[in-house]
Amino acid sequence: MEQIRKIGEALMRINGEKWLLVSGNILLGLFFIILANVGVLPLDTVHFFFFSFIGFLFALYRPAWAFLLLVGFLPYEAVNLAPEAWGMDLRPYQLAVVLLSLALLARLAMKKLSWKFFRLSWIDILPGIVGIGAFLAVPFAPDAGTALRQAVIVASFGLLYFLLRQFLRKEENIRHIEPFFLGSASVVFAYTIWQSFRMQAGQAAFTTMVGRPNGTFVEADWLGLFAAFIIIFILARVFAHIQKSTLRAMDVVRTEGIFLAVRLGILTLGFGALLLSLSRSAWLGVVAGFGLLLSFAALGVFRKAFPRQTLAVVSGLAAASFFLALASVHFFHLTAFDLSSRAESTASGLQLITISCERETALPESIGTTDELAQYGCRHINLEEKESERALGHSVTEIFRQDPNVSIRKMIFLRSFSLIREHWAFGIGWGNAPLFLGSDERGAGLNTSNMFLEVWLGSGLLGFAAFLLFWFWILTASVRELARSAWGNASQLLVISLWGVLTVFNLFNAGLLMALLFLFLALTVLILPKPFQTKKI
User: Fold this and answer.
1) Which of 3, 109, 190, 404 falls between 20 and 30 A from 84, CA-CA?
2) Nearest CA among 166, 4, 12 for reference residue 100
3) Which of the 8 DSSP states describes residue 13?
């Protein structure tokens, strides 16, 4: 308890400088984006080591401050700081992890560390086992060099997890990192909307895909996941805040207008980014997360553990922000895509595409593939080509086709299961899946499009078993704890609903090597009752 108190005091000491740090975090995020877009990033070797040394001194002087900024850096997945000559990417939070780890070791060597390392539990060992499995797979990988490099990256995420566990000791610590996390989220969402404005104006938007903003992530789908995560995180935190308040829900609305207005603003930006990402798996994820939140909250209301007004306020906040975002996207014409058609294609399997024909011709209602268009004198075009095609006198129209993602994912799953049957013990190593699965139309290597398959092929049976145990321990432990509290523990709603978002999204994607996932793992261990602990580290 003494160590937990010291950690808390270290974080609480920043209260006087809290808003200065939060403002600095937001400014740093803006600098990352601007400098990356104008070509200043990645840094050259001299500047990289200079700023790394400054960062190390900062972490050595104020490790708690450095940790808070590290949390703020988590969304900047597409920003690379490492010199191009190194042939590798180094994200801001990865550099912060290295510098903060070195600073803690230096303080430990100088006996200047004011708190001890956290007490290890068996659940904390599981991410390490996934990393061990990644290294064990290297000798069995077709491309051992790639597998080794990727294994080091997997291990670095394990280090991130342990740093999160080191600084986050009590559930109340979440409120210390929340302003930094949400501040950076606001920057990412605002940048996403800026990208959309630029795309619609025909200007450079610094995106990786035509027509789809990706914010500070390498792909639009990852932006969608981040937006879904933030939306459910805010709603669950608001629910818990109202539940723990001594005031009634409606009194909280009247007396804490600024608190709710800020959340409403971030939620509106978040829903806007979610819609603009056009990520159907993220849309399904947010529906699953909100569905779990509502279902368990409604059960709590039925058991009289939660007042109805709390559920009404959170539902109203979600509805208001969603419709504000939807209206803004429509009014400002932030996307050229038909959102309703995109949503319908999730269930129908049909995708609405734009085509150009040499002359007006009778077309079927739908086609199987774009190869069929040639017989009608037509071809598939991008949205930005519509005006130029019309200027040539061509007929521009729309037609439904079978969603190619369905057949691609089916092929990927079949090949992935075949690979698992052949390499069930050690897998094929991280980063080797594209050798077997091929590339997409942009030339980017395909992965298994499923988090669980990706872990098995990357870390073998050992890593897969460890990850599966951790993942489903989260669900069972949170539901069990919620039941023990007579369905009145609002903190467990956060865990369950975020688990739903990440699980549903990652059934169709392999978003394992993202800082967001490891933040979630650390938060669950923070909130859930501690498993059997082994020793201090």
Assistant:
1) 190
2) 166
3) G
303 falls within a domain: yes
How do the residues of the chain divide into helix, strand and coil, expressed in percent and rounded to 5? 70, 5, 25
Count of domains for the chain: 2
Residues 6+ apart with CB under 8 A from 319: none
Residue 26 clears pLDDT 80, i.e. is over it = yes
Per-residue pLDDT reduced to its tens digit, 404-462: 877 788 888 899 899 999 999 999 999 888 888 877 766 677 788 889 999 999 999 99
CA–CA distance, 469 with 158 (Å, rounded to integer): 16
pTM assigned to the model: 0.90
Main-chain phi, psi angles of 276, to 5 degrees: -70, -25
Angle CA 137–138–143, to nearest 5: 120
Among the residue ranges 218-222, 281-285, 337-341, the one predicted with the least confidence is: 337-341
CA distance 135 to 140: 10
User: Hey, what are 245's tokens?
Assistant: 């308040």
Say if residue 77 is exposed, middle or buried (CB neighbours under 10 Å; 0-12, 13-18, 19+). buried
Domain range for residue 492?
117-333+452-536
| Same-domain status, 124 and 217 | yes
Spatial contact of 200 and 336, defined as CB atoms under 8 Å apart: yes
Q: Give me the mean pLDDT over the 281-305 stretch.
A: 90
Cα 269 to Cα 73, 81, 193, 391: the distances in Å are 19, 27, 8, 36
